[in-house]
Amino acid sequence: MKLQAETKTKSQPVTKTGADILIESLVEQQVDTIFGYPGGAVLPIYDALYRSDAEFQHILTRHEQGAIHAAEGYARVRRKAGVVLATSGPGATNLVTGIADAMMDSLPLVVLTGQVATTVTGTDAFQEADIMGITTPITKHNYQIQSAYEIPKIIKEAFHIASTGRPGPVVVDIPKDISANPCFETDQSPFHLPGYQPTFNPNPLQIKKLSEAVKQAKKPLILTGAGVLHGAGSETLLEIVEEFKIPVTSTLLGLGAFPGDHELFLGMAGMHGTYTSNMAITDCDLLINVGARFDDRLTGNLEHFAKNAVVAHIDIDPAEIGKNVHTHIPIVSDAGAALKEWKRQMKEGPQDHSAWLEELHYNKQAYPLWFNSPKEEMVAQWAIKTIHDVTKGDPIVTTDVGQHQMWAAQYFQFRKPDRWVTSGGLGTMGFGFPAAIGCQLAKPEERVIALVGDGGFQMTLQELSVLQERNLPVKIVILNNQALGMVRQWQEEFYEERYSESLVACQPDFVKLAEAYSIKGVKIESKADFENQIGELMSSDEPVLVDARVIQQENVFPMVPPGRGINDMVGVKPK
Amino acid sequence: MKRIITLVVQNRSGVLNRITGLMQKRQFNIESISVGRTEKEGISKMTFVVDVEDHRKLEQLTKQLHKQIDVLKITDLSDKAIVARELALIKIVSNASVRNEVQGIIEPFRAAVIDVSKDSLSVQVTGKSEKIEALIELLRPYGIKDIARTGLTAFSRGQQPQAAELTQYSLLK
């Protein structure tokens, strides 16, 4: 952690400070990467980082929001807590979007924020913000450190809470005097959290009920959520599905939990899901939700959701069971553990569901996803499909929110877990690019592609500096329609084409912008050029920015209009 | 429907804020709160009276409360035989001429006069909320200067009757 250590005389303090204790505690948690940004209240921590011999790297982003989205990307593909460090006041408030995003998508984060010294807390001191008050509703838990004595224990607790049970962000607020002052004694006792005892293993009797229900089902269906990924249950799921021939649909965040090209996979369900998936949910007589939370973008109008089905719901968070959809077989468990137990117990699959499989197979053939592709100009769907086809090596794909996100979900067939990193619950613009940086640092050997819109990219493009500085080979593909596509689509569909503030023709020259950061930038306007160049661009060892010009007046279909049931789709077939 | 919910919590800074914030975020209406220490060091007890729409909402509330790391135990007392009390201090306008009259009103309520001044008189009363309401109404004609109420605090009775008899003991049914 010391770049210029050789040129400076290292002055070893006689005693450790609170900040030294903090760094030691992070090392103990096997932290290898910290995403952060220095400032006044964290000067003692950055000083301790500088003096430390620890082997972890600090990634200096150019905005705190970039740091936390990067940590989210890191956490998603590494399946371990991402660590963020920011200063008090504005540093901490800049993290708020990312904290809320991680909370919604259950990503484990430990967020360290500086705070003004305890001597001035509550006086509206310079760069003071009540980050405990601000983050309480958007964290799994938060702490303000009261003395350096408790640092090791709180850090242990923070990592434990963030990464077990249903993962989530934990904020640890550290006043400056506590990190700066010498600390002579620390609490090394193991932590004890009597109020936090998450269930991990399922009740075998509930699994028995599930197996019985499967046996009797004529139209069974599995819905996968991100819980399958968190619980590393993909392999078991595949074994169950192949043995008992139960079809599978997925939520947005569950993509990749089951191979996207499998014959029993029906595609994503929900507002922009496939017709086959949505009709399967509507018609099934047994819906087995494995680690999804029945989000409103999945369910549509609840009155029409899976009306004919016995609902089994496996979730590690008991509060999700029965929250939105009435559940007949509740199973509180880690999804991976539940799938293992299910596989162990289930001796027979459905007795007779061949008609169901045939019906779904027919729907898949009869109602595929579709788009019109002009001869020369590009539509985003085509571009995404082409990238998918040329990058057979299963890259990690990140996105923002909006049209390009839905198209990526529809046309990028994720075959393996942890390849898909997107902001689902909170729907955060500007998430995709910094998240891709986090993914690349977490998995240096993998190819990482940030599929972003021109709107979202402009919210966090300052992180190009990180690519430049570290020469991270992230590939940025801007699907540039010079519009806020999803807003524009809704205005077209539901606001009689009054495009209020959604057409944004004025934008920087993205190629020059990339070049300003010494990054290769390419603008591509035609299908032919895209086909010719994209393979090479995507397999480069260097960072690349592609400004792909796509047709603006293009909508995401099929679609469930807001307020309708998911069986009530528009745009199922080409007009 | 009104429910009485007690929480045993770790007495850490911000814990009340966590609980009330959660209720606000999930749109639960709090009628009263009372908080105090318990016999165990570092452990507090909160008693909430909340208004919830239906059983599904109630289940959601208790599940969300369970997710709070500082919450150790949640009890819904509404369907149990319980002892529940609230304390109120009521200051009314009063001079020497009405003091005896007031004394006569509050006596059946087993309330006590706890402070007297030249032109006011303060009464302390404990009991169920309805009893306190009734006394307040009786004192209102004298002119109420101030009221301080604690909110309900409660626990279950040592002996619980059989399920069939429950309703007659329950406070809210």
Automatic annotation (TrEMBL), chain A:
Positions of the Thiamine pyrophosphate enzyme N-terminal TPP-binding domain: 17-133
Alphabetized InterPro entries for the sequence: Acetolactate_synth_lsu, AHAS_TPP, DHS-like_NAD/FAD-binding_dom, THDP-binding, Thiamin_PyroP_enz_cen_dom, Thiamin_PyroP_enz_TPP-bd_dom, TPP-bd_CS, TPP_enz
Cofactor(s) needed for function: Mg(2+); thiamine diphosphate
Pathway: Amino-acid biosynthesis; L-valine biosynthesis; L-valine from pyruvate: step 1/4; Amino-acid biosynthesis; L-isoleucine biosynthesis; L-isoleucine from 2-oxobutanoate: step 1/4
Entry EC number(s): 2.2.1.6
Catalytic activity entry: 2 pyruvate + H(+) = (2S)-2-acetolactate + CO2
Top enzyme class: transferase
Biological processes annotated in GO: isoleucine biosynthetic process; L-valine biosynthetic process
Location of the Thiamine pyrophosphate enzyme central domain: 207-341
One GO CC term on file: acetolactate synthase complex
Cofactor binding note: Binds 1 Mg(2+) ion per subunit.
Alphabetical list of SUPFAM superfamilies matching this protein: DHS-like NAD/FAD-binding domain, Thiamin diphosphate-binding fold (THDP-binding)
Domain Thiamine pyrophosphate enzyme TPP-binding: from-to ranges: 400-547
Assigned keywords, A-Z: Amino-acid biosynthesis, Branched-chain amino acid biosynthesis, FAD, Flavoprotein, Magnesium, Metal-binding, Thiamine pyrophosphate, Transferase
MF-aspect GO terms: acetolactate synthase activity; flavin adenine dinucleotide binding; magnesium ion binding; thiamine pyrophosphate binding
Family: Belongs to the TPP enzyme family.
UniProt-recorded name of the protein: Acetolactate synthase
Lineage: Bacteria, Bacillati, Bacillota, Bacilli, Bacillales
UniProtKB/TrEMBL annotation, chain B:
Keywords: Amino-acid biosynthesis, Branched-chain amino acid biosynthesis, Transferase
This protein's GO CC annotations: cytosol
TM helices/strands, residue ranges: none
An example molecular function term from Gene Ontology annotations: acetolactate synthase regulator activity
Keyword Transcription: no
Gene3D superfamilies: 3.30.70.260, ACT-like. Chain A, domain 2
EC number: 2.2.1.6
CDD domains listed in its UniProt record: ACT_AHAS
Domain annotation ACT: ranges: 4-79
GO BP term (any one): isoleucine biosynthetic process
Catalytic activity: 2 pyruvate + H(+) = (2S)-2-acetolactate + CO2
Keyword Lipid biosynthesis: no
Metabolic or biological pathway, per its Swiss-Prot or TrEMBL entry: Amino-acid biosynthesis; L-valine biosynthesis; L-valine from pyruvate: step 1/4; Amino-acid biosynthesis; L-isoleucine biosynthesis; L-isoleucine from 2-oxobutanoate: step 1/4
Classification via InterPro entries: Acetalactate_synth_ssu (IPR004789), Acetolactate_synth/TF_NikR_C (IPR027271), Acetolactate_synth_ssu_C (IPR019455), ACT-like_dom_sf (IPR045865), ACT_dom (IPR002912), AHAS_ACT (IPR039557), AHAS_small-like_ACT (IPR054480)
Superkingdom of origin: Bacteria
Quaternary context: Dimer of large and small chains.
PANTHER family given in the database record: ACETOLACTATE SYNTHASE SMALL SUBUNIT (PTHR30239), ACETOLACTATE SYNTHASE SMALL SUBUNIT 1, CHLOROPLASTIC (PTHR30239:SF0)
Functional description taken from the UniProt entry: Catalyzes the conversion of 2 pyruvate molecules into acetolactate in the first common step of the biosynthetic pathway of the branched-amino acids such as leucine, isoleucine, and valine.
Record-linked NCBIfam families: acolac_sm, PRK11895.1
The family this protein is said to belong to: Belongs to the acetolactate synthase small subunit family.
Name used for this protein in its record: Acetolactate synthase small subunit
Organism this protein belongs to: Alkalicoccus daliensis
Organism lineage: Bacteria, Bacillati, Bacillota, Bacilli, Bacillales
